[in-house]
NAD(+) diphosphatase
Amino acid sequence: MSLPVLNTFAGNPLDRAGDLRNDPSWIEAQATHPEALAMVLWEGQPLLEQGPEGPRLAWLSMGHARDLVKDRELFLGLWKEAPVFAIEYETPDDPTTGPVRGLGQFTGMRDAAAVLPGNEAAMAGTAKALFDWRRRHGFCSACGQKNGIANGGWKLICSADGTEHFPRVDPVTIMLPVYRGGAEPLCLLGRQAAWPAGRMSALAGFLEPGESIEEACAREIKEESGLTVTAVRYHSSQPWPFPSQLMIGLIAEVSDDQAAPDETELEEVRWLTRAEAADVIAGVHPTIKAPPPFAIAHTLIKAWVEGFEV
């Protein structure tokens, strides 16, 4: 049995202590633990410092973190026996010009994902997704009253009627259509008009209610490129904290090569041979730029180039 593929933002090393974090007194004991640490975020951007081997998360003692930020903390889990938290600034001004001057630099999550060690990217992505969720769900969807924070930041409870709210994860199918009925195998990439010049990627779309993963894959490929799916194989998945999706990576075989962009989501589609796709991944294709290496779309293209089939 092969080991699962760990895409960027997966592989969080922390014990989330899901049962223990229900107890407010236990959470407070962790926050006051002498070895408790906290990462710092501002507007979804983690604070990074330069380490001996490159950029890494800047960690503060939890006591120091609480001196800087009030009521914006999140319990992430246990790293061995050390409690790990995150705090978030909600200010218009960059805190590195004031309270955290000299401690590092806030870096956009996509840029951070490209340089952080995998386990640190996973922790930072988890923190961003949870803070984004809390920011968007400050009021109860049932009655409109203010929600309170519980479960170390992993649950919201309505202050009026006690309705409990939990973080949501939006499933997305992301798939590489492939065709094997010609002289050599081909894969299909698509391009959205808003992307950087030359960028092409796998096709993707949200699952809809009452839809299986396979059905969503087939529907999205039909809608975006006009192709009919005949078989689907799962490859891997990726937590994607923008704001909180689960990308479900698939390779999808299609019945023919008569692809056409829908011109609503995609302005262009292009069939590539394995050699051409290999050039895209290697960054030497004359016109097409690959999705960034930390994106699961890059992983899917690379896997197909290396022989992964439906």
